[in-house]
Model the fold of this input.
Amino acid sequence: MQRRACALAIVATGFMSGPASAYMAYVSNEKDNTMTVVDTATMQVVKTVNVGQRPRGITISHDGKHIYLCASDDDSIEVIDTASLEIVDTLPSGPDPELFVLSPDGKTLYVANEDDNLVTVIDIEGKKVLAEIPVGVEPEGMGVSPDGKTMVNTSETTNMAHFIDTSTHEITDNVLVDARPRFVEFTPDGKQAWVSAEIGGTVSVIDNQTREVVQKITFEVAGLRPESIQPVGVRITADGKKAYVALGPANRVAVVNTQTYEVEKYVLVGQRVWQLAFTPDQKTIISTNGVSNDITFIDVATDEPVQSVTVGALPWGVVVSPK
Amino acid sequence: MRKRTLLGPNTEIRSVAVRASRHGTKADVRGPLSGFDKICGSAKLITGTLTSRRSDNNRTLAQERVILSMTSAVPGTLAAFLCFFFLTVNVAGALAQEATGKQPTATAKPEKKLTEIKIGYLRAYAPQLALSVLDVPPRDEGVAGGNVAIADNNTTGSFLGQKFSLDVTEVKPDADVVPAFQEMIAKGNRYVVADLSARQLLSIADLARDNGVLIFNAGATDDSLREEECRASIFHTIPTRSMLADGLAQYLIWKQWRRWVLIYGSHERDQLFAEALRRAATRFGGEIVGEKLFEDTGTARRTDSGVVQIQRQMPVFTQDLPEHDVLLVADESEVFGTYVPFRTWIPRPVAGTAGLTPLAWHPASEQWGGTQIQNRFAKANGRRMVSKDMAAWTAVRILGEAATRTQGADPRKMADFIRSDDFSIAAFKGQKLTFRKWNQQLRQPIFLGDTRSVVSTSPQEGFLHQLSELDTLGVDEPETKCVLK
Done:
């Protein structure tokens, strides 16, 4: 017992140079096949881990013990132990997994397989494929409703959000959105799904009851040509009041009021900003800036950028540990 | 806005069915299911669907398609036998499924009538030689891209009850295309992708207008077709020579390589590209300090000891050119261009139709989601995607997009949509592409690449425009001579 406590203490000092309440941010670096671990309190890189080829989508188990990482060019999902930071397992993913979402109960992964026009449903514990759902051309964005009953996939060339019943694995509705839909985020109350369209330059807000677009959010930054505004990652605060939208080569994150759908601020971060993640305390949101090889910490209270931290080459996705 | 799937609710079996129908006869579909499972899954479905045939004579085209592709998905008798064996083993399960009656009937209830959208593809073709065997155009150049877009459109169409088809007709280069075009119209094609010469295109433009047919030029780069000879019935997805030349020129200026010499061929198209390069020089501040014509004297393109002679001839040919930064080549006719790089009198980079080449698409482009279309294309065609394939893909995708957005196949509505401000298309070039309203040319970035990789894409940073930076490439609205009719 005593020995065990001792070992834990060593692990703790090894990993957490900052305060004990620190979270870890895990960033997938698409170009150099690594994952960077960043302490969110000190905003320092703790470790760089070698992973499979072309790591993109990244998420974490609800207990914080495992990271799931899409190694797109290896056609697999890697399971990384957050304590040892070693790859401990792989899951069958279907070809070219890019992005996925974890079910609210933490048991199922829904994976977009870009090359095969499929969404693959994976049982994490049994490590098996439960279903393959044919969707539109180039599936990408994946979202799941807070109650776990509805999963949404976007297809980038078909330009649709496919609403899928998670009990039957059947598509129930196909909602047309603008060109190259990249990401889906449900509001915390589950009433709306927000879908970004990279080439269309918009975010469509879809009512989860009627499955109709109720609002289309557009963006405008003085001095920037409209084509450079390419919305990708979307995150909504737990209180449902603010949405953050990463605007790609516009190098900014838009802050949207979810009541008025007005853009209240554009936060300048790094180059080609793609994905976003909150810290669990919701005080900070982190953006991945692919071309400038860094991530930016944004203060959620003030919506001011706090600091940028250099990570690996072409950072793609980010997830923060739950504790 | 509310759309449902074409095929009704069902379980796992349906997934297999739709998937197999998309992949056609391909047995190499990757995935966690083994090939064996896949084949037998298909076979099971055939029996299921056949059972349902008796009770339902009103099968739709969609089902017909599924059944047909199911049949072709079984590669041979051995597979059929294995599947039969597999079926017998699983007989209990199969019987249970039939007993519930769920599986076959569920697939037999489409909720939407299938709308057919027929696209014609008219092509002037004759085998062509090239200086390098690597540059011989693929037999299905362009058509292959059109077919990939048809498959893409049909995936989307499966959610909307739309089915696209491509009807390809080939004529000889410079043949009279009017009869072939008339036949296409008679067959009900309201959209025609054309890979024809400028003269051939003009010969059918009025016929198209009078019959409400839209032509998508995916082959001719002639500026005249967008300028003095522009026509309201023709949209252009392939860039013009001036767009290509401007894309190249911007990069050379960005590199501060401003002094150019130009060697051009003696055929009409070589001279047209040379003219586009001269225009680009004036436009972006390059200087053509010397020019030379390379006369085509009818030499055979491939001779056994040709290399020895070329190694001696090309330095001499380029010896008297004035001092320069870059040597530009305009040889669309494949007479000498490939022989210029590395053989010049002084060591200088080569650009134009040889060396660094401006292109509508590069076979190695993986940026902006390009990996996905490249993989899809290579898987379907067993070769890499080239410019004309992309122009044809884009044309067919534009029609798919128009059918999706207008929720139907009404040619007038689709044409109105394509001409409207709402229209844009994504084509793996990093930004949305739109048509120039004044001459119906698709705005697009230009790839600059050598034989191996993409070097850059234009417009280059710093070339500004009040409306769209893409309009720094080619003839802009204030200069256009086009009056659409």
